[in-house]
Amino acid sequence: MDETPERAEDGRNRAWGGRFKGGPSAVMAAINASIGFDRRLWRHDIAASMAHARMLGETGIVAPADAEAILRGLETIASEYEAEGVPVDPALEDIHMTVEARLEALIGPAAGRLHTARSRNDQVATDFRLYVRDAIDAHVAALLDLAHTLLERAEDHVETILPGFTHLQVAQPVTLGHHLMAYVEMFARDLSRFRDARGRLNLCPLGSAALAGTGFPVDRDLTASLLGFEGPTANSIDSVSDRDFALDYLAAAAQTALHLSRLAEEIVLWASERFGFVELPDRWSTGSSIMPQKRNPDAAELVRGHAGRIIGCLVSLMVTMKGLPLAYSKDMQDDKEPLFEAHDLLAVSLAAMAGMMAEIRFVPERMRAAAEAGFPTATDLADWLVREKGLPFREAHHLAGRAVALAEARGLALQALPDSAFADLDPRLAGAAAAPLSVEASVASRTSAGGTAPVRVREAIARARQMLKEVA
Ligand code: ARG
Fold first, then answer.
1. DSSP class of residue 7?
2. Which of 16, 115, 120, 243 to mutate to test the pocket of ligand 1 (most atoms within 8 A of CB)?
C-alpha cells in the first residue's frame, strides 16, 4: 500500500509540526513509537473512528458527504488490515496516526476532518476499553469452559476417596469430586470479577477530547450506543486519565492466574512418582532429551509460571499509574504491553488447563491408598467420643491421640485396633472398634452444608451447573 509521508520535507510531524522547526531525533522517534504493539488495537480504533465519523456527519459537525467518504475509507482500511495486516512505520508513531495517514492516502484532505472534536487521548481511552471488553468476553467464555470440564470430572468422582491435606500432611479424607468443586467455586468467583469489571468499564470516553471536552455539538450518547457502551463517561478529565478499567481487568486476570497456578501446582505434585494420583496423557506431557523415562508436566508448570508474569503485569501498570497527575501523560502509553501480555498468557493458560483437566487420568487406587495412611480418621474417633460418650471435644481429642499412638506402635490402622486394645487404653474408649473409622464412613458423615459427603457434593454440582447456565 502506498504511504502518505507522515513527515513534511524538513522532517516535521504533519500532525503537529506547525509550531516546530524540525523533526525528532531518531531516538526520540524510537522511544515515542507505540505502533509496534498498539497495532493490535486496529479493529477497535477503526470501530471507534467509524462511530465518531457517523456522529460528526449526523450532527452536521462535518458535511455528510465528507463523513460518508471517511466511513467508506475506514471500511477499506479494515479490509486491508484484515488481509495484509497493519504496516509498521515508526514515523507514524501509533495505530491512530497509522489509520489516519492511510485514510488520507485513500480519500484525500477530507480525512483531516475525522479528528474534529477528538483527541488521541479520548480515542486511545475508547479503543483500549473496547479491547479490554473483548478480552473479558473471551476469558469469561474460557472460564465457563474450564468450570464445565471440572464439573463433569467432579461428577464422575463424587465417591472417589482422596486424602485431604493441610500443611501438605494428610488431614481428613475427602472426595475427589469435592476437591475439584473447590476449583469450580474459585473459577466462578473469577468469572464474576471479570463481569464486574466489564460492568464498570462499559462507558464511552469519546467526546472528552484532550481533557476538557469540546465546543463542537457532539452527540456522546450516539457514539456510546454505536459502540455498544451503556452511555458516555461523566467527567472529561477522568475519561482520558482513568485506567482503572485496565487495572480491574488485570486484577481479575491475576486472581484467575493465581487460582490456575494452584491447580497447576497440584497437577505437578499429583503427577509425581511419589503421589501418583494422576497421569497426564502424552498430549499434555513432554519428555526429556537425556532421561528416556521422563514424562514432565510442562504445561502445568508453565501455567504456574505464567501466573507470576501476569501478577507482574498488574503491578507494572499500578506502578505506572500511581504517580501520574491528571490528566493524560505519555507514561500511560505503557499501559498496553502489560495488558496484552497478561491477556495472551491468561488465554493460553485457561485453554491449557481446560485441556489438561479434560484429559487427565485420575488414579483412584493411589488416592485411596494414600488416604488410608497417616490416621486420617482420628478426628472421627474424637467426634465419636463426643457423640457417644459425652466427652468434651478437648478430652476426646486427647484420647483419640493416644489411640493413634497405640495404632502407630502396632503398625495398624485405627479401625484395625481390636476393641480390647481400645478398652485397655482407657475405659472411655470401650466400644470404639464400632466407631465409623473407615475413610468411606468418615466422608459419608460430613454432611454439613458445603461438606465432603457425596450427597452434599451432588447438590453442589447441581447448584454450580445451574449457576453456570445462568451466567452463560
Ligand atoms: N499512543 C498514545 C497512547 O497509547 C496515544 C495517545 C497519545 N496522546 C498524546 N497526547 N500524546 O497513549
1. B
2. 120
Quick check: is 288 catalytic?
Answer: yes
259 is catalytic: no
Give the CA dihedral 126, 54, 107, 34, nearest 10 degrees. Answer: 0
Query: What's the pLDDT tens digit per position in 150-191?
Result: 999 999 999 999 999 999 999 999 999 999 999 999 999 999
pTM recorded for the entire structure: 0.94
Question: From the CA of 34, how far away is ligand 1's center (Å)?
Answer: 9
Please report the atom of ligand 1 found closest to the CA of residue 128: 4
Angle of CA points 228, 230, 235, to nearest 5°? 120
Angle between helices 95-107 and 120-156 (to 10 degrees): 120
Residues 6+ apart with CB under 8 A from 51: 206, 222, 223, 226, 227
Residue type at 276? Answer: G
* Residue 460 identity (one-letter amino acid): A
DSSP at 284 = G
Rounded to the nearest integer, the mean pLDDT of the chain is 95
3-state secondary structure 357-385: HHHCEECHHHHHHHHHCCCCCHHHHHHHH
Q: Please report the pLDDT score of residue 7 as a whole number.
A: 63
| 3-class state of residue 204 by DSSP | strand
**Model pLDDT, residue 5:** 46
- Strand partners of residue 405: none
Q: Which residues' Cβ are closer than 6 Å to ligand 1?
A: 34, 38, 94, 120-121, 124, 328, 330, 332-333
Name the residue among 263, 276, 278 with its Cα closest to residue 143: 263
For residue range 54-65, what is the model confidence (pLDDT) as tens digits? 999 999 999 999
| Residue 304: pLDDT over 60 | yes
Distance in Å, CA 121 to ligand 1 centroid: 6
Pick the catalytic residue from 272, 288, 329, 420. Answer: 288
C-alpha grid cell, residue 39: 497495532
